Amino acid sequence: MTTRALIAGRGGHGPPRPLLLVATLVGAAVALPAIYLLVVVAGDLDGAADALWRERTARLLGQSALLAGAVAASAAALAVPLAWITVCSDLPGRRAWAFLVTLPLVVPSYVGAYVLVATLGPRGLVHEVLAAPLGIERLPSIYGFVGAWLVLTLVTYPLVLIPARAALRRADPSQLEAARGLGAGPWRIARTVVLPQISPAVAAGSLIAALYALSDFGAVSILRFDSFTRVIHQSYRASFDRTGPAVLAAVLILLMVVLVALEARVRRRGGHHRTGPGAGRPPAPVPLGRWRIPALLLCGTLVTVALVLPVGVLAVWALHGTETLPWDELRAATGNSLLTAGLAAVIAVAVTAPAAWLGARHRRRRVVRAVEAAHHGGYALPHIVVALALVYFGVRVVPWAYQTLGMAIFALVLLYVPLALGVLRSTVLQIPPSLEEAARGLGRSRMAVARTVLLPLARPGVLAGLALVFLTAIKELPAMVLLAPTEFDTLATVLWQQTNLSVFERAAVPALVLLAISAPPLALLMGRER
Amino acid sequence: MRSLRSSLVVCSLLVSSLGLAACGSDDEDSSTTPSASGGDVELTVYSGRDEELVAPLLDRFEQREGIKLKVRYGDSAELAATIREEGDRSPADVYFGQDAGALGALAKGGALAELPAETLDRVGPGRRSTDGRWVGTSGRVRVMAYDKRELKPSDLPDSVFGLTDPKWKGKVAWAPTNASFQAFVTAMRKIHGEDRTAEWLEAMKDNDTEAYDKNGLIRDAVAAGEVQIGLINHYYVSQKRAEEKDPEAYPVALHFPRGDVGSLINVAGGGVLASSDHQDEARRLIDFLLEREAQEYFRSETAEYPLAAGVEPLDSLPKLADVPQPDLDLSDIDDLEGTLKLLERTGVL
Amino acid sequence: MSGTIDRVAGAPDAVDGAAPSAPAISCVGLRKAFDGVPAVAGVDVDAPDGALTAVLGPSGCGKTTLLRLLAGFERPDAGTVRVAGRVVADDRTFVGPDRRRIGMVFQDYALFPHLDVAANVAYGLGRRPDRDRVAGLLDLVGLGDVAARRPHELSGGQQQRVALARALAPRPDVVLLDEPFSNLDASLRGRLRRDMRAVLLAAGASAVLVTHDQDEALSLADHVVLMRSGTVEQVGSPDAIYRRPATRWAAEFVGTVDVLPGVAEAGRIETPLGTVPDPGVHRGAVDVALRPEDVALTVDDEHGDAHPVVVVAREYYGRDQLVTVELPDGRRVRHRGPGHPTWAPGDRGHVRVTGPVAVVGIGMRSPR
Questions:
Q1: The complex's ipTM?
Q2: Which of A388, B125, C101, C161 has the smallest count of CB within 10 Å of its CB?
Q3: Straight-line distance from the first to the last Cα atom of chain C, in angstroms, rounded to the nearest whole number
Q4: Residue A162 distance to chain B (closest CA, Å)
Q5: Is the dihedral of CA C150, C155, C159, C164 positive or negative?
C-alpha cells in the first residue's frame, strides 16, 4: 500500500489544500479560548491539580453531563415530530405553526427561567390561581434539575427543529412516497423513512442543544442548579482566582469533546444523499388522519408554554413598569443588536462553509475531523470564559482592535460558528457529490461550482444557518459586556442591567423589543419556503 | 426569483443593521485609542455599579470638571477579572466596584495606585484599604429582611446564630454565591474562628436554608412569602420600598441584628489604576465621589450609607454610628479564598 | 475468420505524442487503492478515437473507479492517463476534471435540480452560452420541447438524454458514461441504446461506457474492455470477446458457455462431443468453451456424427429456448435453438457441435 493511498482515504484525492487551510485557520481562531485555558492552567499547575481533584468537580461533571444529555434528548424528542408535522403533514396552517414553534428560539434562557419562577414558583401564578384555592400549601419545587431541564428544553428545541426542517425539506420525496405506497401509516413512515433521512441534522442540532445547556448561565443560575457554568461564574465572582474556573472550564471542554464524538458517530452511520435521479421535487403532504388533533395539541401547547406564556408575563410586567423608558437608548440598543447579530451571522456562515463542506465530503479523514471538532471550540464554555480569553489575546495580540466593534463581532462569530457548522454540513450532505463532479467535468473551477451549484442547492441550509446565528447572537451578553466598545449597548446588555437591579418590570420592555425584532428575520427567512 | 429573494433577505439584514447602528457605534469606536494628553482628557471607568444608579452622578462630574468619561458597565467581579487579564495594558483609568472584595483583589494584584492621604482621610478608618489603594464611597449594611405580615421585630433573633433554631426551618434565605454574603462569612471567620463558622454554616444548611443567587431575588422571595427572613444588604429593601406607592404597605421590613457580625457594614468604592496615564484626573473623580453632592446622591438615590462629608443616611435607617459593628477592619476581610474553601467544604457552595 | 488481432492484458501499445490517430483515451499502468484495497490494479487500455468503448465487468471489478480516474475525480496512485494524446495524469502531472475536456454522464445523471433543462445543457458552455448550440443539442436528443422544464418533471429516459446533451455540449474529446441505462426500464433500454448510439455518432464523439450488462456492451460498443478484480481480462471487438474468450472466466462471464475437456493434436481437438477444428495451434490437454447456440439438438442422428443425450431441463424464452442435456457419461451441455420444437425433460435426442469452439485453458488437466 502506497503512502498516498494511506493519506488519500476513501474520498479520492485529498481535500483541496486551500479549503483545508481556511478551515484550519477558522478552527484555530475558534479554539482560542481552549488555548487560553491551557495558558492559564500551565501557569499554575499546582493550583490546577488542587482544583481538579476536588469531590465537587466530579459531582459537577455528573450533573452537567446529565443536564446536557437530558436537554438534548428532550429537545430532539420535541423537534423531530414538530419538524415532520410542519413539513410533511397536512396540518392546517402548517407554515404558520412552523413559524410559531420556531419562535421560542428568541427567548433568552434567563427570561424563560424568570417566567417559570413567576408561574410555577412557590408563590407563582399557578399557586395563586389553582393550588392555593385547593388548599395546597406548597407546589413541588421547580428549582434545581427539573426547572433547568424544562426551561433549557423549551429554549433549545428550535436549535434542533430548524436543521431538522431544513433536512426534511431537502429529503428525497420518492422514499416517502414509496413508504406511503407500501401502505405505511404516518408513524411508520416517520420511524422508518423520515428519521434516517434527517438523523445527521437532528444529531447536529442535539449536539448544539447539549452544548448550549452546558454553557448556559441564565437558567441554571436563576433556577439554582449547580452546573459547571454556574460554579465557574461563582468562582470568578468570588475569588478572582483564574486557575480554579479555568480547570473547571477545561473539564467542560473534555465533556464537549465527548459529545462532539458521539454526534460524529451518529453522522457516520449511513449515507444521506438522495438516492434517485433528479432532485427538488416538492413532496405531497401526508394526511394526518386521526393524528390531526394530537398534532395540533402538541403545536398549540408548545406555543402556549414556550411563547405565549413568556410574552404574556413580560407584557404584564411591562404594563406595571413604573418608570418612563429611555426610548432613545432603547432605539440605539436595538440598532446595535441588529448590527452585531447581523454581521456575526453573515460572517459565521461564510467562514464555516469550508469546514462544513470538508466535513460532508471528506469526513473519513482524521485531519478534517480534527478541524471540525475545533470549530466547536468554545461553544460549551461559559461565555464569560470565552470573553476573558479574548480579553487576554485581544489586549496582547491585537491591541488596536481591543474593545472595538470588530472584536465584539469576532467574539460572536467564534461563539456561534458551531451553530452554522451543523446546519451547513447536513445541507451539503444531502447534495449528491456527483452534482459537483458533473459541474467540474463540464469545465468549471471549484469556486465556480460552489457558486453555481452548491450555493443555490444549499440555500435552505444557508438561510437556516443565518437565522440560527442571528437569533442566538442577538441574545448574547457576556461577550458584549466585556468586548464591545465602551458605552456600546445592545438590547441584551440593557436587559441585563435592568435584571441586575432586580427590577423585572423594567427589564420586560427591552425583553419584548428583543423578541419583537427577532421575529421578522425569522418570518422573512421562513417565508421563503415554498 | 428565488435567489433574488434570498439575497434580498441577506442584504436587508446587513444593510438595515449597518444603517441602524451607524449612529450608535461610529462615535464610540475612538474610545480604544488612548486620548491625547492635554486639554481634552478622557477617562475610562470600569464600573461594577449599575448604569441606572450611577450614570447621573458621573454625568454631573463631566459637567463640573470638564473631563469626559467613558464608562464600561459590568459586573464588579467580571470587570476586575477583565483588568487582571488586561494587565498593564488596561484601557481603564478608574475602577468603581460594588464590594470591598473586588477592590481588595485588584489592590493585592498590584493593579491599583496609592491614593493621597487627604483622599483617604475623608472616610473613617475601616472604610478604606490599609495600604491606601482604594477608598469606600458608600456603605451597605448586612441585615435581616423579614416578612412583617408574619413576624414582629421581637420575634427575630438578635444574631444570625439564632437562625439555626428549628423554628426557622425552611423559612430563611441566603445567597451563598453573593460577594456580600461571602464577605460576611469572612468577617464571621475573623471574629468567631473557623470552627464556629463552619458549625453555623452546617447548621443553617441542615435547617433547610433556601439558597438564592441574588439579594434582590431574596427580597422578592420574602415579599412573595416564599421565605420569612432573608440575609441581604439593606438598600435592596430601602430602594424597593421607596418605589412603592404606599411604602408602609410594603411587606418587607429591616432588622439590624445587634450581636456578632449581624450588621456588618461593607462598602462600594473606587481606586485608580496604576497603569493609567491620567492619575490626576482619575483622583479627581475619586475625590468627587466623596464630596457632599455625591454622598447626598448615594443617600437619596441608592439608599446607601454616605461615608463622608458628614451626610446622614435616610431617615428610615438608623444612623451609621448606631449600627452595631463588629470590631473589624474591612481590609482584613480579604481572605475570600479561605471562605470559598469553607463554603465548599461545608457543602454550602 | 477475420484478421483482427486480439490484445490481451499486459500488452500495451500506447503511442506517445498527439498524433491525429492518437487514441481518445489511453492509460498505462494505472493503479488506485482505497484504504489499501486495490480497486484498479495495473490497467493498460486504449479507447480508439471516434469509437464507443465499453468497459464491461461484474460489480466491484473496478470499472467505475477506472472511469473516475479517467475523468479526473480520482488521482491515480501510479500510471499515466492520456486524453487525445495529451498527458492528464502521471507521476508529475494532474489535470483537474475541469480541464480534461471530458464529458461525463453519471449513473444518477446528476442533473442540476435548480436549473431547467436548457440551463443544464448550457452549464458547460461558460457564462454566455451559445443558444443555438443548446437548441441544436436538445433537438439532437429529441428534447426541444421540454427545454424550460426542471429535471424532476422529466421521465428517467428524458433525464438521461439531458445528461448526454449536457456532456456533449462543450464538445469534449471523449464522453464517459457510467451505467447510463441502469436506472431505466428494461423495455426502454433497447430504444435508448440505439438513440444514444445515434446521438454519439452524430456528434462524432468518442465514448467510454461502463456497464455490468453484457448485452449493452456487445450491442452498443465498437470495442470492449473486459475487467475483472481491478485488471483487464481481455480487450477486443464484441465479436472477438464473445467468440474467442481468452480465458475461461471471460467465456463464462460473457454469455452462456459450457467448458469441455479436450486433447489437441494437429489442428484438431478431441472432445466428448467429437472432434472439432482447433481455432489456434495447440497440443495436448486443453479446455474447450462451447456456446449453446453452436450445439445442435435433433431427435435423430441425421449425419451419423451426433451423440445421444437425454433432456434434463428447459428454459423457454419465446424466440428461443435453452435446453440442458445429459450425455451417457453424465456430463451436461446446453443447446440454444429456436423456440420450436418443444423439448421436455426426459426426451431423448442427439447433439453435435456446429460452430467454432474457443480454447480457454491449456494443459490444466488430462481429458477424462
A1: 0.77
A2: B125
A3: 31
A4: 17
A5: negative
